[in-house]
Specification:
Blueprint: E1 6-11, H1 15-26, E2 31-37, H2 40-50, E3 54-57, H3 66-76, E4 81-86, H4 91-99, E5 104-107, H5 111-123, E6 127-129, H6 131-134, H7 138-147, E7 158-164, H8 167-183, E8 187-192, H9 194-206, H10 211-217, E9 220-224, H11 225-231, E10 233-234, E11 237-238, H12 240-257, E12 265-269, H13 271-277, H14 281-297, E13 300-307, H15 318-325, E14 329-332
C-alpha cells in the first residue's frame, strides 16, 4: 500500500485518547486521520461511508462493543484493516479480535511504544500482537495459533521476531515457545548464544521437562550461535545455501525423532542478532530470507530475537523496518 495514501479512522469513546492517537499518527509521514467515532454504531457508519485503509478500534464502546463493530465492518468495508487498541490484556480477548478478522492488537499502556510499529505491520499485511500479551503468556498465544479458525498462524507460515529490552524478557519468551512445542510432542531447535542456551536449559528443567530424554531422543537440539555462524561463512558473509541446508537437515532430523507424521518443529535462532551486532545488517536480512524459504518447505515455526539496543535508532531505524518486513508477526518489549 502506498504510504502517502493511508487514510485512518480512530474509534474510541474517550476524546482525550482520540486526540492523543490522532496527534501521534499525524507525526508519521503519509498517515491521514480522516475521521473519528465515539461509539460502536457511529464507527460502523463512518467505516461504511469513508472506507478507510486503517481503523484503530477500541473494545469497550457504547451502543455496540468493538468485537461486534469489527464483525460488521468486515462486511461493510472489507478492504479496511483493523488494529485494536484496548486496555484489555487477556489472551482470550486477543483470540476473539483475530477471530472476527482484525490484523493487530495493541494494549493501550503500550501504545506509546508500539502503536506506530503495529500500524505499519498491519499495513504490510502482517499480524501484530502487543508484547504485554504475547510476551508474558506465550502459551496462550500458541493456543490461539492452534485454535483460531479465520486467520491462524498454524494455517500459514509463521516467522516471528521479538525486539527485547533485557534478557529476562527474551528467556521468558523462548522458554514458553520451546516448552509448548516439547509438551505437545513436537521438536525444538535452538541456535543461541552459549549463555542463553545454558539459561534456557535450566529454565526448562525447572518447569519439569525431561530435557535429558528430549536431547537423547533428538527432539531437542541446541547449538551455539557463534560457532554455528563461523561454519557457515563464505568470504565473511553467511552462505544462504549452507544455512538452508544445515537448518533443513536439522529440521528433518528433529521431525523424524518425534515419530509423528504431523510433527512441527519450533526453531529459534540468534545468528541474525550476532550479525547485526557486528554491523553486518545486510547479512542478517539475508538469513531472515532463508528462514522464510524454510517455512515454505517444512512444518516449522521460526522465531528470532534482537535486543533493542543493537539497533541504532531502534524503532525508527530503517533496519528495524526491514527486519519487521521479513516476519509474519512482530513482538516488542
Amino acid at each position: 500500500m502506498d504510504k502517502s495514501s493511508i487514510r485512518v479512522l480512530i474509534v474510541d469513546d474517550y476524546e482525550p485518547w482520540r486526540r492523543y492517537v490522532s496527534t501521534t499518527l499525524r507525526k508519521e509521514r503519509g498517515l491521514s486521520v480522516i475521521g473519528e467515532a465515539a461509539d460502536g454504531l457511529e464507527a460502523v457508519q463512518q467505516a461504511q461511508v469513508l472506507q478507510p485503509d486503517l481503523i484503530l478500534l477500541d473494545i469497550g464502546l457504547p451502543k455496540m462493543n468493538g468485537i461486534e463493530v469489527a464483525r460488521q465492518i468486515r462486511k461493510l468495508a472489507p478492504q479496511s484493516k483493523i488494529l485494536f487498541v484496548s486496555q484489555e490484556s487477556s489472551a482470550d480477548i486477543v483470540q476473539q479480535v483475530f477471530d472476527v478478522g482484525a490484523q493487530g492488537y495493541v494494549v493501550k499502556t503500550e501504545a506509546g511504544r508500539e502503536l506506530v510499529t503495529a500500524a505499519n505491520a498491519v499495513l504490510r499485511n502482517e499480524r501484530f500482537v502487543s508484547a504485554i500479551v504475547a510476551g508474558h503468556d506465550l502459551g496462550s498465544t500458541s493456543n490461539f495459533e492452534a485454535s483460531n479458525t479465520t486467520a491462524t498462524f498454524k494455517d500459514r507460515p509463521h516467522h516471528a521476531v521479538l525486539f527485547y529490552s533485557d534478557d529476562a524478557i527474551l528467556l521468558d519468551w523462548l522458554t514458553q515457545f520451546v516448552e509448548v512445542a516439547l509438551n505437545a510432542g513436537n521438536a525444538a531447535i535452538v541456535v543461541a548464544t552459549e549463555s542463553h542456551c545454558d539459561s534456557l536449559l535450566l529454565r526448562l528443567q525447572a518447569h519439569g521437562l525431561d530435557i535429558a530424554s528430549a536431547i537423547e531422543g533428538g527432539r531437542y537440539i541446541a547449538l551455539d550461535a557463534a560457532a554455528t555462524l563461523s561454519t557457515l561463512m563464505l568470504n565473511d558473509t553467511p552462505d544462504p545455501a549452507r544455512f538452508g541446508n544445515l537448518l533443513g537437515n536439522l529440521i528433518a532430523t528433529a521431525a523424524k525423532a518425534t515419530k509423528r507424521q504431523d510433527a512441527r518443529v519450533a526453531v529459534f535462532g540468534e545468528c541474525v542478532h550476532l550479525l547485526c551486532a557486528q554491523g553486518n545488517t545486510e547479512a542478517a536480512i539475508q538469513v531472515e530470507k532463508v528462514g522464510n524459504q524454510l517455512i515454505k518447505r517444512y512444518k516449522v515455526d521460526i522465531r528470532c530475537a534482537y535486543p533493542l539496543g543493537s539497533l541504532q535508532g531502534e524503532r525508527g531505524d530503517p533496519v528495524y523496518q526491514q527486519i519487521c518486513a521479513e516476519h509474519s508477526a512482530v513482538f516488542s518489549q
